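User: Here's a chain of 153 residues. Predict its fold as tokens.
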Amino acid sequence: MAQSSGPQDQSHDLPAALAREAIRDLVARYNANGDSGRFAQVRELFNEDATMTIEGDRTYAGIDEIMTIFTGTKSSTSGNLTHVRHFTSTHQIDLVDSTHASGRLYFAVLTDIGLDHWGRYVDSYVAQNGRWRFASRKVTVDGWSPHTLFPRT
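Assistant: Prediction complete.
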């Protein structure tokens, strides 16, 4: 699978379509499991040596360090937080080869106050043993509600 620079040369074969769908499912599971506090399931979505960068300030290296983002956020959010719902859109996936891909997408987060914060993910994905996982994720928050229930990093 060749990397594409635009829609005119996107691969339309079945393996490419299956890879893109598996990556979309990976992102959906990240949001659904993270939002509902199922962190053991979130852990399974990352490669062991994955990295995650939040706001460009701090890079978390390795799965154990990445998981502290989730457990730390849960313990430091406002007591008024009863639900979190991440929504993603405009997910552009570029397949590099049969086991590597990159992606860019937008996110919006709804909480008890409504729209809480929003931004972008820039990802790299790797397939191992037939399963796609995050190799890296960069999170950029573009805006916050003045009444956000999340700790600002």
